[in-house]
Write a structure and sequence with these properties.
Blueprint lengths: L3 H8 L3 H16 L5 E2 L11 H11 L16 H15 L8 E4 L1 H13 L5 E6 L4 H8 L3 E6 L9 H7 L4 E7 L11 H18 L4 E5 L21 E6 L12 E5 L6 H14 L7 H9 L7 H18 L11 E2 L8 H9 L3 E2 L1 E2 L9 E4 L4 H16 L3
Parallel strand pairs: 1-10, 3-4, 3-5, 5-6, 6-7
Antiparallel strand pairs: 2-8, 7-8, 9-12, 11-12
The protein binds pyridoxal-5'-phosphate (PLP).
Protein name: Aspartate/methionine/tyrosine aminotransferase
GO molecular function: pyridoxal phosphate binding; transaminase activity
Organism: Ruminiclostridium sufflavum DSM 19573
Length: about 400
């Protein structure tokens, strides 16, 4: 039989998956276009034309050993291209040896946590947060410490952060643009976090890292997403192409670190080694080459912006409370019942698939993923309105 731990974890596991299954049942009864599915963060726009062109070119290439094992860090020329891109945007001086190609951002997070954590060390995350962090931190013997963000803005509270750091804190894991709130952290707030960690690292005599999980960095609407490597020397940046190029199934991401970070050689050596021993070995060969060729492209973010504007403005008109998201493709409004799981059930009666905020460590809210078609959003609006009216 499978282990007790995994068996229990499966029982308690993701509400998002549960919604997916409920949705499939409803779609069978009512038809696809009568069920409004806002549950999964699976991008629906097709990848940009550059991705398809790169794939065609590579398929016709006579290059030998294109599908072989490689250095566990990934192809040097792909890492070089990413380092140069970061340098051109920031003025930093990363080399190819400051970049490791990974199996998506999920793979990258596991590699980073495996590399950094001694048993029992703490990783601080800000609620609400991407729920997989629970498992990823546990996978490597770490302890998750969740602290709340401000109730009005979902921004980290640096005073609370200062109080929460102990001699056992190894890293603070941030996510901007954020899943589930869509909030983007400004340079000011990132600098405040960095200042706290600088001070606490000195006080405790060891490096406290920022791990910055940034799958949505290219999906920001009219605001800058500052590069964390320019703000904190001991930051580890994680990016992927799952959302920016609509390639989640291809599992392509990377880790980048500042060449000035403490003991950078051992950090990079650890990351490369962990990429190998976690069984990833190296990131998928073909798609490393594809993303390098499409390095300057991204999905048209106006597609998401139009959806955000329609959904956000409509919900506010119907009486929902919500922070206006500046990035990613999520909205995180307040549930109209304190019990967000019950609220999700009430929404289901209107064929609305939403995810309770408890699934992200913030009960009393719900998440909407607007990576579904504009038509679905338009068709769903009467249902959101009717749901709100039930609580007036
Ligand atoms: N981190 C966050 C905040 C995410 O929302 C996701 C995916 O939805 C991931 C990491 C995982 O990304 P990937 O599919 O590239 O592994």
């Amino acid at each position: 039989m499978i282990s007790d731990k995994i068996s229990n974890s499966i029982k308690n596991s993701s509400m998002i998956r549960a919604m997916f299954e409920e949705g499939a049942k409803l779609k069978k009864i009512y038809g696809d276009d009568k069920v409004y599915d806002f549950s999964l963060g699976n991008p629906d726009p097709e990848p940009p034309a550059e991705v398809k062109a790169a794939l065609r070119e590579l398929a016709n290439s006579e290059e030998l050993k294109m599908h072989s094992y490689m250095n566990n860090a990934g192809y040097p020329e792909v890492r070089e291209a990413l380092a140069e891109k970061i340098n051109s945007e920031t003025g930093l001086k990363l080399g190819s040896d400051n970049v490791v190609m990974t199996v998506g951002a999920g793979g990258a997070l596991n590699v980073v946590l495996k590399t950094l954590l001694n048993p029992g060390e703490e990783v601080i995350v800000f609620a609400p947060y991407f729920v997989e962090y629970n498992s990823y931190i546990d996978n490597h013997g770490g302890r998750l410490k969740v602290i709340d963000t401000d109730y009005k803005t979902f921004l980290p509270d640096t005073e609370l952060l200062t109080k929460s750091i102990t001699s056992n804190t190894k890293a603070v894991l941030i996510n901007t643009p954020n899943n589930p709130t869509g909030v983007v952290y400004s340079k000011k707030i990132l600098t405040e976090i960095a200042n706290v960690l600088e001070k606490k690292s000195k006080e405790y005599g060891h490096t406290i890292y920022i791990i910055s999980d940034e799958p949505y960095r290219k999906l920001a609407y009219d605001v800058e997403v500052p590069n964390i490597l320019t703000i904190y020397r001991n930051a580890i940046m994680i990016d992927c192409f799952s959302k920016s190029l609509s390639l989640p199934g291809e599992r392509m991401g990377y880790i980048a670190a500042n060449p000035e970070a403490d003991d950078i050689a051992s950090l990079m050596g650890g990351l490369i080694y962990c990429n190998r021993i976690l069984g990833f070995v190296n990131a998928p060969a073909l798609f490393q080459k594809v993303v390098a060729k499409a390095i300057n492209s991204s999905v048209d973010i106006n597609i998401y912006k139009e959806r955000r504007d329609l959904l956000y403005n409509s919900l506010i008109n119907f009486g929902y409370e919500c922070v206006k998201p500046d990035g990613a493709f999520y909205l995180f409004p307040k549930a109209l019942l304190a019990d967000d799981v019950e609220f999700k059930n009430r929404a289901l009666k209107h064929n609305l698939l939403i995810v309770p905020g408890s699934g992200f460590g913030r009960p009393g809210y719900f998440r909407l993923a607007y990576c579904c078609s504009l038509e679905t959003i338009k068709a769903s609006l009467p249902a959101f309105k009717a749901l709100a009216e039930e609580f007036k």
